[in-house]
Amino acid sequence: QVQLVESGGGLVQPGGSLRLSCAASRSIFGIYTMGWYRQAPGKQREYVARILSGGNTNYADSVKGRFTISRDNAKNTVYLQMASLKPEDTAVYYCNAGRSPVGAGMYWGQGTQVTVSS
Q1: Nearest-CA neighbor of 78 among 61, 62, 98?
Q2: Is a pLDDT exceeding 90 seen at residue 5?
């Protein structure tokens, strides 16, 4: 079992920045792919970014160049640095972990709300 706890969400103005954190209950980054997904009201959950066990990263086209995923192995924490935020980035952001390098894994966090509004 793996527990994931997100933090760092909040209200930010368009063009602003925010950093989300996801703390894992145990050391898994050497084995698991860590990802971020988001779900806006009335929409399906969508992929945002992932970092593979080897460190390679991948991003959805909608966030490429604005968001950066990273991890701190010593802290068992993965981050999502978000910049140049837009109102359409407003969503609940979820941390995800799984063994496959593609698709969503079986472990999810509880989500953290990000609202981009003036």
Answers
A1: 98
A2: yes
